[in-house]
Amino acid sequence: MGIDLHTALVIQGNEVYVDTTSKGGNDKPPYGFMIYRFERDNYRPILSSDLIFSEKTRAKEEGEKLVETIKKLDLSKEISKIERILGDDKQAVEEVVKLSQEGFSE
Predict the structure, then answer these.
(1) What angle do CA 35, 41, 47 make, to 5 degrees?
(2) By the 8 A CB rule, do 47 and 14 touch?
(3) Distance between CA 36 and CA 84 in Å, rounded?
(4) Nearest alpha-carbon partner for 66 in 45, 37, 35, 43
(5) Where are the domains of the chain?
(6) Exposed, middle or buried by CB within 10 Å (0-12, 13-18, 19+), for 7?
(7) Handedness of CA 26, 16, 58, 4 (dihedral sign)
(8) The Cα angle at residue 80 between residues 35 and 37, in degrees rounded to 5
(9) Does 106 have pLDDT greater than 50?
(10) Which DSSP state fits 57?
(11) Does this model's pTM top 0.70?
């Protein structure tokens, strides 16, 4: 499974959860996993696997293992590249991200 940089950064920077999925939500094999988070009490899916697991517990374990692996990645070089590209706009982008996480209110 390939994971793009944006997805890895979202997983690293947020509290995420893992749950299992099945075809049509019928709770029968095969199973997959989904990684998601909540933003201002709204469910936000991040990624999901194919339905390839015969056991529900195995699907969840694999999803949790993937989250753990991503959280341990050193993405500092990639973050530095992004910061160089943003240059003087970095502070403005950080403020927009902060506001989007908190919700806009006046």
Answers:
(1) 15
(2) no
(3) 29
(4) 35
(5) 1-73, 76-106
(6) middle
(7) positive
(8) 15
(9) no
(10) H
(11) yes
Q: Which of 58, 14, 55 is nearest to 36 (CA)?
A: 14
Q: Provide the pLDDT for residue 25.
A: 76
Distances (CA, A) of 86 to 11, 42, 83, 100: 21, 29, 5, 18
Q: Is 74 helix (H, G, I), strand (E, B) or coil?
A: coil
Report strand pairing: 31-39 vs 17-22.
antiparallel
* Residue whose pair of structure tokens reads 């989007």 in the numeric block: 100
Amino acid at 21: T
Q: What are phi and psi of 49, to 5 degrees?
A: -95, 170
The residues, ordered by sequence, that sit 6+ positions from 28 with a Cβ below 8 Å of its Cβ are 22
HSE value, Cβ hemisphere, 13 Å, CA-based, for 25: 0
